[in-house]
Design brief:
Layout lengths: L10 E5 L6 H11 L3 E3 L3 E2 L14 E2 L2 H9 L3 E7 L2 E6 L4 H4 L3 E5 L2 H10 L4 E6 L3 H11 L4 H15 L7 E4 L5 H15 L9 H7 L4
Parallel strand pairs: 1-7, 1-8, 2-7, 3-4, 8-9
Antiparallel strand pairs: 3-6, 5-6
Helix pairs in contact: 1-7
């Protein structure tokens, strides 16, 4: 795909309630397209068996995380069950390499990112309907009945925020690749947005040559 100039990567913020399949969709997007990479979050919780530092998370101490916060080296973060989770500013270096950086976070964090980086692209992944989402959570076999109800109520609250996102993509059963393809086309279209290369024409045609 040809653009005015070699584009900087796009910060792609992807949200979706539990059971919408956002993790699967993002994994397919990266598998199919090498210019899409995952933003690895930092956390102060210890690694679980099989997890690798720098792959699942950047595992750091609480003291290190708090130092990053003081030094403005964290884009966004939250605290959950006594541990910090957040995005290090160093992850943005991947954008300068022309990589499209996938940031998979919840609604509150997504809106903070949009405020801090207005040119980011926000996508909300939806299930086809209420019943399908419930069935997905039930079929996991890992959630108790009351937990499923809590997750469904949380999902409904999150769905009410979709209007604040740039795009919404429905992930139908068995069609995660189609959802990934839709997000790919969104990003490729965004790379042609004039505001991303607003001085390109001037640089290409109107700059005074010495």
């Amino acid at each position: 795909m040809t653009t005015l100039l070699k584009p900087k990567g796009i910060l792609l913020v992807v949200s979706g309630a539990a059971g919408t399949g956002k993790g699967t969709v993002n994994a397919l997007l990266m598998k199919e397209h090498e210019d899409f990479v995952y933003s690895v979050s930092a956390t102060t919780r210890p690694p679980r068996p099989g997890e690798v530092d720098g792959r699942e998370y950047h595992f750091i101490s609480k003291e290190q995380f708090e130092e990053h916060i003081r030094n403005d080296a964290v884009i966004e973060y939250t605290e959950y069950c006594g541990n910090y989770y957040g995005t290090l500013k160093s992850e943005l270096k991947k954008l300068d390499e022309g990589k499209n950086l996938i940031l998979e976070i919840e609604v509150e964090g997504a809106m903070n990112i949009k405020r801090l980086f207005p040119d980011s692209v926000t996508v909300f992944i939806l299930p086809p309907d209420y019943t399908t989402l419930r069935n997905r959570l039930v079929n996991r076999g890992t959630n108790a009945a009351d937990d499923i109800e809590n997750r469904m109520q949380k999902a409904l609250r999150e769905f009410a925020t979709v209007k604040s996102y740039d795009y919404a993509v429905v992930n139908h059963d068995g069609q995660a690749k189609e959802a990934a393809d839709a997000i790919y086309e969104i990003v490729k279209s965004e790379q042609h947005r004039v505001s991303r290369t607003e001085d390109a024409v001037e640089r290409l045609f109107f700059q005074t040559k010495n």
